[in-house]
Structures are given as C-alpha cells and as structure tokens.
Amino acid sequence: MGPGPNAGAAGAAIAGVLCCLIVAIPLGLAIGSVILRAGVSVANKILGAKPGTSRRRDRDRDDDDEAGYEEDRYGRRDRYGDRDRYDRDDSGEVEPIPEPSLGWGMLIVLAAGIVNGIIGFIIALGVFGVMQPNTPEKEKAADLIANLISMPVGFLSLAGFSSLMLPTTFPRGMLVAAMYYVIAIAVALVIGAIAVAVIFAIGGLK
C-alpha cells in the first residue's frame, strides 16, 4: 500500500520549508545587504564624506595611545572615549561611514530582522490582547495598529546594529537606516509599477 495523500502534502510542506531556508532567506538577506550598502553610500554623500579608507583607522596606534586615544571593543578609536569626534579626522575632513561587505551586511540585516521580529511579535500579542478583535474587520485594524507601532522599532533596530557593526555613531546609524528604508521603498515601487505594467500589457493582448 503506497503513501497516502497526507504523506504527499507533508512532503510538499517540508520541501517548501527547505526551499525557504536554503534559497529565499539567503536571497532576501543578500538583497537587504545590497540595499544597506547603497544606504551607506548615500549617507556618506549626504555627510560630504569622501569614499575610501578612514585615515583615523590608519594612524599609528602607539601615537594614538600617547595622545589619549582609546579603542573600544568595536575598534572605534576616539579621544578619551568621545565618539562625537569619530565624525571627523584630525584634518577636519568628514570621516566616511564604513561600507560593509556583502556577507557582513547580510549579518547586520539578519540581526536587525531577528530583533524586530521578536519585538514585533510581542507588540502584536499586546495589541490583540487589548483590542480582543472578534470580527475580520477588527482583526485587520489590530494588525494594522501592531504594524504601525512596530515600524519605529524596526528603524531603531537597524540603526542600532548599523552603529554597532559597521561601526559608526548612532546618529549616523539612524541616517543609514533612513536611507535603507528610502531605497527599499523606491525599489518596491519600481517593481510594483513594472508588475502592474506587465499585467495590463498581458490583459491587452487577450
């Protein structure tokens, strides 16, 4: 007696989960990393920073120590721990925000996504617990409210991990996160417009 329909459905579900883990998630993280790198590039242009290696990082560490510079655990070297001085080097030129590699950018996006997902889940539980929706309309309203509350959390999460892992200051991390969302929304709008145009084109051919 061969396997029943339930076994086939279970196999399809397992295959879908494996496909998501092996293909969809890495692809999504790679796209997020590319957008993050673009966000860093745009943020540097807004700040007026020239791309390239930061001269602060190339200075002789012994001279830095004698001058009172300290290195924190993220490799940032600021005079007496003053991170505001990280924005400019000794010549007064604006220090560029370090651009992450593709893999490191994927880790930043992944870390921010995990934190945002956990906090978003907690927020959703709280909203649904308070509103007690008992109709589809109320469920949609509760879901919308939870998403709206979670949006600033996602922004701050990405800004925080950008600050820690690039590394840079938190205000600059917020700028990177803002550019990330602007670029992501622009890309989504372009893809949506192309999809709509294709649908109308196909409909016109029928």
Largest sheet: 2 strands, antiparallel
Q: Roughly what is the average pLDDT, rounded to an integer? A: 79
Q: Low-confidence segments, ≥5 residues, pLDDT <50?
A: 55-85
Structural class, please? Answer: mainly alpha
First CA to last CA: what distance?
47 Å
Question: C-alpha Rg, in Å?
Answer: 23 Å
Tell me how many strands there are. 2
Listing every helix as H and every strand as E from the N terminus to the C terminus, the arrangement reads HHHEEHHH
Question: Care to give the gist of this entry?
Answer:
With 206 residues, the chain is mostly helical.
Describe the 3D structure.
The chain has six helices and two strands, in the order H-H-H-E-E-H-H-H. It has 206 residues and is an all-alpha fold. A two-stranded antiparallel ribbon has the order 1-2. It is globular, with a radius of gyration of 23 Å.
How are the secondary structure elements laid out?
Blueprint: H1 5-47, H2 55-58, H3 61-66, E1 69-71, E2 77-79, H4 102-131, H5 136-165, H6 170-205
Antiparallel strand pairs: 1-2
Keywords:
mainly alpha, globular, 206 residues
